């Protein structure tokens, strides 16, 4: 069977192949019929954790997006969905961002969505649901790299529990880094809530598109 | 591998097994790791195509929902999502309706969603997106049964083309009957737009849930 080909853009510059290919590996393991080609933006080692870095990244993302050959779909692997709206207009294939995929699915699980992210202001797709979200940043986490530390991960669990206390009935992760460091099952176990993982959500949307064809 | 077990409620009474099992067959073919058990509500041969019939159906759906044993998830196979909000609160497993699944995914494909349904007022999940939908009922279709006629299907294609003319950049089907009569690929071919099928959308959400576990 011919595989469904997906381009995936990482918005974090890295030379570490384990990190670079973590998202494509995750998606291809979960959806073996999908083949993922990864590219990462240049010169942005901190990823995107503020408006300024998003604006810096967007033209690079658009440039990279145009450089893929023969893909059926493009995934922007960042919960902030940088350049996603522009690319939907620009390309003639479906373009989906991790943030919009996450919130689309989270909305089916609960009416009070706990948004666990790395920024004080949640990404745009989550903010669009502002009447039904509780958004918090773990105090010890302010960049995706902080999720690679024990202290950062403990802080994330504590914050998730606070959101549950405040009434969240589902958790939507607002950074793909949580999946990179495999935190989703831990958060699910500690809170007892369904945790919507941006990579699994985005991969599921790619799988949906592959089945539509 | 143990199959992921899903209960599915049809909101149309039928003794015709081809019709009764059309939805479960569709989902199990697309997602072989999912096992679907179907039940249909009693004494409602016209399905749901108005508020009155929805109100009549809802207590029957809740009753049926409680009668499933050992399921991991419940799907309400109707774009109107009857009793879905109530069941989400009542049951301790995820409950997803075909309408909310469809609109969640359609929203990722376009910002002007053509809603093709069988009622003058679109189902609630679609109405919730009222700023970004164009909703039309094909003139020759006023019940899911009309989709079983050639005249009804032609009318649906014509209406889809009118919505595209009006600016729709994705089509969201607002009745599972379109999938029952296999109209999705026809609509896609005739309009050139992505067509979001309620059964495939709902099946995809069930698959997402099965992967989360």
Describe the 3D structure:
2 copies of one chain form a homodimer. The longest helix of chain A has 17 residues, at 51-67. In chain A, the strands form 2 sheets. Chain A has a 4-stranded parallel β-sheet with strand order 2-1-3-4, with helices on both faces. A 4-stranded parallel β-sheet of chain A has the order 6-5-7-8. The first copy, chain A, has helices at residues 17-20, 22-30, 51-67, 84-90, 98-109, 124-127, 150-165, 177-180, 184-191, 198-212, and strands at 4-10, 34-40, 73-76, 95-97, 113-116, 133-136, 170-173, 195-196. In chain A, α5 crosses α10 (198-212) and α7 (150-165) crosses α9. In chain A, 53% of the residues are buried. Chain A contains 10 helices and 8 strands. Chain A binds chain B through residues 30, 88, 94, 96, 100-101, 104-105, 107-111, 188, 194-195, 197, 200-201, 204-205, 207-208, 211-212, and chain B through 30, 88, 94, 96, 100-101, 104-105, 107-111, 188, 194-195, 197, 200-201, 204-205, 207-208, 211-212.
């Amino acid at each position: 069977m011919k595989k469904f080909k997906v381009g995936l853009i990482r918005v974090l510059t890295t030379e570490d192949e384990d990190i670079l290919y973590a998202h494509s590996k995750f998606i291809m393991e979960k959806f073996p019929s999908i083949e993922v080609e990864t590219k990462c933006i240049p010169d942005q080692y901190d990823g995107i954790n503020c408006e300024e870095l998003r604006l810096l990244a967007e033209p690079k993302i658009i440039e990279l997006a145009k450089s893929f050959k023969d893909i059926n779909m493009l995934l922007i692997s960042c919960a902030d969905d940088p350049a996603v709206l522009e690319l939907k207009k620009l390309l003639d294939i479906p373009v989906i961002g991790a943030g919009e995929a996450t919130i689309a699915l989270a909305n089916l699980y609960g009416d009070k969505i706990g948004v666990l992210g790395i920024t004080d202001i949640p990404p745009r797709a989550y903010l669009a649901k502002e009447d039904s979200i509780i958004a918090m940043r773990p105090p010890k986490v302010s960049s995706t790299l902080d999720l690679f530390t024990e202290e950062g991960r403990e802080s994330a669990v504590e914050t998730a529990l606070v959101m549950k206390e405040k009434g969240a009935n589902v958790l939507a992760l607002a950074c793909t880094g949580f999946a990179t460091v495999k935190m989703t099952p831990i958060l699910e176990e500690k809170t007892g809530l369904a945790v919507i993982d941006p990579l699994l959500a985005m991969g599921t949307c790619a799988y949906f598109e592959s089945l539509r064809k």
